[in-house]
Amino acid sequence: MARAITYKFKGQPRKIAFSYDKFHDIYEAVAAAEGIDLTAFLKMEQQVAMTAKRTAAIKDFRQKEFIRFGFSEIYLHKDDSEL
Question: Are 29 and 23 in contact (CB under 8 A)?
Answer without folding.
Answer: yes
